[in-house]
Amino acid sequence: MSTREFADLDTGNTTAMPIPPRLAAICLGGLAAAAAVTVLAFWATSNSGRSRASATGRQEVGRSVCHQTQRPHTSGQVARGEGKIAFVRWAGGSYAVFVMAAKGGPAHRLSLAPLHPFPIRRHVYQGEPAWSPDGTRIAFTSDRTGRSGIYVMRSDGTRTRRLSISDAGDVRPSWSPDGQRIVFARSALGRLYVIDADGGHLRPITQGVYASDSDPAWSPDGTRIAFVRRQRGGDVAAVYLIGADGQGLCRLTPFAKSVYWPAWSPDGSRLTYTKRNGSGFAVAVVRADGRGLRTLTPEWLDFTPTWSSDGTKIVFAREATLFVMNADGSGVHRLTSGTIDDSPAWRPT
């Protein structure tokens, strides 16, 4: 066994796990095969949500947006630089976490295929990488045992350990700014949970009674969590905010046909996310008080936007290829080519 293989190897059920057809419609119209394959990887964040009621049973605050004063968060910000980007790549019959220089170039695989006493007869998903605030660890989602769970590894790919797992599917981890906790979505239940970074003290922060909640992102100042909410059985979604203690729910963005993957700017003043109103999916940016909404890209197939460590750029996936652009939407250029890539995450330091 290689020295980079897992410290606490999982050897569970290898039965194929059904992949919900999130975004299956975008495979229509003669899309390239690579784009069709990467759509399957989006299963992990398939349940978005909004609700008539808050996580605590109260009616949602106000008519829509969160008109709160947001003080820019400055601690922990770094000087402008290239850094590294972790992302998901289809390689060797499975999805795995890779890392590369933020300027592009060769990529290095971090998450190795888990070992089992007999061959795995399915595609293993390892994705949705999220850097710890100090850049020393990466949380990610994996269904290596047949059930989706949250895992953490060192930033060099060593010492992988599992924090949570459930039949409902634990997906989309995001770190608290002090590195002590992780928020994630329990997909089939449509609820958000917080767990300590050592795997202890699991507790829900939304209830998922009238809504399905997904794609959480912890704010840089630690006080709020952005997420996507869709009414169960509804056909629209929006970005919501909730306090890290599960209180103070409010809606941040207008409703759209589909909304995915909110991500905070490093100073906490803005969020970027993917939205759909027409036939495609575009990257948008909104201020943390709900004002100043701008769509930065055409409605194409643009997903999983995240910010550079200095807040000047946004990296995102377009048709299974990684692109980067300036924070105002200008200067779009390709980072990867000839591979199937998704879910980029810029190293914070």
What does this protein look like?
The chain has 349 residues and is an all-beta fold. The protein has one domain (24-346): TolB, C-terminal domain (Neuraminidase), CATH 2.120.10.30. It is built from 1 helix and 24 strands. Strands 3-2-1-24 form a 4-stranded antiparallel β-sheet, with no helix packed on it. Strands 4-5-6-7 form a 4-stranded antiparallel β-sheet, with no helix packed on it. It has a 4-stranded antiparallel β-sheet with strand order 8-9-10-11, with no helix packed on it. A hairpin with a 5-residue loop joins strand 16 (258-264) and strand 17 (270-276). The chain is globular. The model is unreliable at 1-65 and 69-81 (pLDDT under 50).
Task: Fill in the keyword field for this structure.
single chain, disordered N terminus, about 350 residues, four-stranded antiparallel β-sheet, Neuraminidase, about 5% helix, globular, mainly beta
Concise structural overview:
The chain is mainly β and 349 residues long. It has one domain: Neuraminidase, CATH 2.120.10.30. The protein is globular, with a radius of gyration of 18 Å.
